[in-house]
Specification:
This protein has 250 residues and is of the alpha/beta class. 37% of the residues lie in helices and 26% in strands. Helix 2 packs across helix 8. The chain starts with a helix and ends with a helix.
């Protein structure tokens, strides 16, 4: 009997170990420097949106690692499953086909047009007022549904693309583009870095207010992770953690 009991105990233990869920591995998240929301300090991710992401996954009990990549490469990594997630990104119908968007966004941003202070360009709120203008954009970037639709409809005749915002703002300062569309706070941050705040101004009202998200690859099943992330973000909204973390840059 003791031998049988020992065998049963061993069998139960083995089954329990076999059936128990494996410890969750750290999710590989990719991002890019996007000051003041996401900063790279000595290769270490910092900034309010980084803190929001870390806190949301801490609340859901999921470990994460965060690495910096150029925007197009990071987008390709999450599209092909080389990375589990990416932040921040706008929602578009095309992106929803290969990316899993949670319900809760990370933040909202006002997108505006920056022009040189000596420019006569005036954005009236109607994109037709910018139809002949050379507008600087970053490749593979969405600036909100309204702007994206105008691009598809051919409203803008002269879009100039660069790989990052530093490059596109340098083009603006050099007169190679006439306007740059960018998140208001992000644009101010880059102009501050370029010591060019006194050379550039915002023309007209915001193009629109758009939401940005953390997304997951569809190459693996991250539906449960996305649900847990939504729950954590909802809780952070209710207990004012989100507003507290974003307050310093508002």
């Amino acid at each position: 009997m003791p031998v049988l009991q020992g065998f049963v105990l061993t069998l139960i233990t083995c089954l329990a170990l076999h059936c128990a869920p494996a410890s969750a591995e750290a999710l590989k998240l990719v991002t890019l420097a996007y000051p003041p929301y996401i900063n790279e300090v000595g290769g270490v991710p910092d900034g309010p949106v980084v803190e929001i992401v870390k806190e949301a996954f801490r609340r859901s009990g999921q470990e994460v690692s965060i690495s910096f990549y150029p925007w197009t490469r990071g987008l390709n990594m999450v599209q092909t499953g080389q990375a589990d997630g990416l932040f921040t990104i706008k929602k578009t119908p095309e992106r929803e086909r290969f990316l899993l968007f949670p319900e809760e966004p990370l933040l909202s941003q006002d997108y505006v047009f920056f022009v040189r202070k000596d420019s006569r360009i005036r954005f009236t709120g109607d994109y037709a007022s910018l139809a002949p203008v050379r507008i600087g954009i970053v490749r593979n970037t969405s600036y909100g549904a309204r702007f994206d639709e105008a691009v598809q409809q051919g409203v803008f005749s002269r879009l100039e693309a660069a790989n990052d915002y530093l490059h596109i703002f340098r083009m603006l300062l050099a007169g190679r583009v006439d306007a740059v569309i960018c998140s208001h706070l992000v644009g101010l941050s880059y102009l501050r870095e370029l010591k060019a705040l006194n050379q550039v101004s915002v023309s007209g009202p915001p193009s629109e207010t758009a939401y940005s998200y953390l997304v997951f690859t569809r190459e693996h099943d991250h539906s449960a992770t996305a649900s847990a992330f939504d729950k954590a973000m909802s809780g952070m909204k209710k207990d004012a953690t989100l507003s507290r973390l974003l307050a310093p840059i508002r």
